[in-house]
Design a protein that fits this description.
Blueprint (H helix, E strand, L loop, with lengths): L2 E10 L2 E11 L4 E5 L6 H8 L7 E6 L2 E2 L5 H11 E5 L10 H11 L6 H11 L15 H13 L5 E5 L7 H16 L3 E5 L11 E6 L2 E7 L5
Parallel strand pairs: 3-8, 3-9, 6-7, 7-8
Antiparallel strand pairs: 1-2, 1-4, 4-5, 9-10
Length: 224
């Protein structure tokens, strides 16, 4: 699945976040979007995930224009195409691990084999024994694994990760990146916002944004 933005501008009131942005994300790659705070990285990720609307320009998913879709149509694409992994996990603290992971399936009204799918993911991420625990009782690394399970439960083709290791110590950060790398090897596309230069070695391509513009776009010489 290829996603493409063409001449995209985003404004909040009179404040311009970025202007005339052009990027193509090919399937099965790992992308890093880097830049200082306020450069527009997270806003771009939100637009890619259909969580925010562009002000002008074009955003296409497999050639399908998304900018003119209704809110319900965008929500359907968001639920079926993308998985989201956030820095602060974005879990419901008083829900169990199982219920947090189950949420996207409820929105998609997918009932068949729900328990099997969730159990498989939790087992793959080594948190199957935490299935019935309240997420507020988990460590940071365990919470991020729950967030990754939730991102994958609908078999999303594209994983959007906003500072996925930002709240973790070095050991857990490496473990999370190894998980994301494993997903890439399974054919998933990973688009990641990060401040951490140590994560760039996991990436096929690094895009740097500054003052709302792309100032560099580098392809890794590694076989990723």
């Amino acid at each position: 699945m290829t996603i493409e933005i063409v001449n995209v501008t985003k404004k909040y009131g009179s404040k311009e976040i970025f202007t005339d942005l052009n990027l193509t994300f090919e399937a099965g790659k790992v992308y890093a979007i880097i830049g200082q705070s306020g450069s527009g990285k997270t806003t771009l990720l939100n637009i890619l995930g259909c969580m925010d609307r562009l002000t002008s320009g074009s955003y296409m998913i497999n050639g399908r224009e998304t900018a003119s879709l209704s809110s319900s149509e965008q929500a359907k694409i968001r639920n079926q195409t993308f998985g989201f992994v956030m820095q602060n996990y974005a879990l419901i603290d008083h829900f169990s691990v199982y219920k947090n992971v189950e949420l996207p399936l409820k929105y998609a009204r997918k009932i068949k084999s729900r328990e099997t799918r969730i159990s498989e993911l939790l087992k793959a991420l080594n948190i199957e024994d935490k299935k019935n625990q309240i997420t507020n009782s988990l460590s940071g690394g365990q919470k991020q694994r729950v967030a990754i399970a939730r991102a994958l439960v609908n078999d999303a083709e594209i994983i959007l990760a906003d500072e996925p290791t930002g709240a973790l110590d070095t050991k857990n950060g490496i473990q999370v990146m190894e998980i994301l790398s494993g997903l890439h090897r399974q054919g998933k596309t990973i688009i990641m916002v990060t401040h951490n230069p140590e994560l760039l070695g996991y990436c096929s391509r690094t895009v740097k944004i500054e003052d709302g513009k792309i100032i560099s776009d580098k392809i890794s010489d590694k076989n990723l």
